[in-house]
Write a structure and sequence with these properties.
- A hairpin with a 6-residue loop joins strand 3 and strand 4.
- The longest helix is centred in the middle third of the chain and has 4 residues, at 35-38.
- The chain has one helix and four strands, in the order E-E-E-E-H.
- With 61 residues, the protein is mainly beta.
- The chain starts with 7 loop residues before the first strand and ends in a 23-residue tail after the last helix.
- The chain has a domain at 8-35.
């Protein structure tokens, strides 16, 4: 059972404090990413064609 506010370790060995859960609308796939990724910038070396600078961009209020 997952308890909100507790810390967990990924099976690959790293600790994840806060996750953001989101759903890709077109495929209906559900993803979980660390909150730090949500707030980080896109790696332009890895994704040079990306017009967006932030991993996630707020689109409504």
């Amino acid at each position: 059972m997952v308890v909100i506010g507790k810390h967990y370790k990924h099976f690959k060995g790293f600790k994840v404090d806060e996750l953001v859960i989101y759903e890709e609308e077109s495929s209906r796939k559900v993803w979980a990413r660390p909150k730090e990724m949500l707030l980080s910038k896109v790696d332009k070396d890895k994704y040079p064609a990306s017009a967006q600078n932030d991993h996630f961009l707020k689109i409504d209020d």
